[in-house]
């Protein structure tokens, strides 16, 4: 897409020449190739991080308050 190298294309090229190993991932996957995916991943990481989760919640609440968002 848009001239960028796709991971699946690279894996297919490698598999044509050599063996490819895989790992079945269990958990949440984020598409950080999109703007909203990167934002969501960053928010989730910050909320899950013990040292910054409370500050993140407070910052998010301030932003919602400043923007006049009452319901989420």
Short description:
With 72 residues, the protein is an all-alpha fold.
Question: What's the arrangement of secondary structure elements?
Answer:
Layout: H1 7-17, H2 35-48, H3 53-66
Query: What's the total count of β strands?
Result: 0
Largest sheet: none
Task: Report the total helices.
Answer: 3
Structural class: mainly alpha
By oligomeric state, this entry counts as single chain
Q: Any idea what the radius of gyration is? A: 19 Å
Which series of helices and strands comes N to C? HHH
Q: How many structural domains does the protein architecture include? A: 1
Descriptors for this entry?
single chain; mainly alpha; 54% helix
Describe this structure in words.
- This protein is mainly α.
- It has one domain (7-66).
- The protein contains 3 helices and no strands.
- It is elongated, with a radius of gyration of 19 Å.
- The two termini are 34 Å apart.
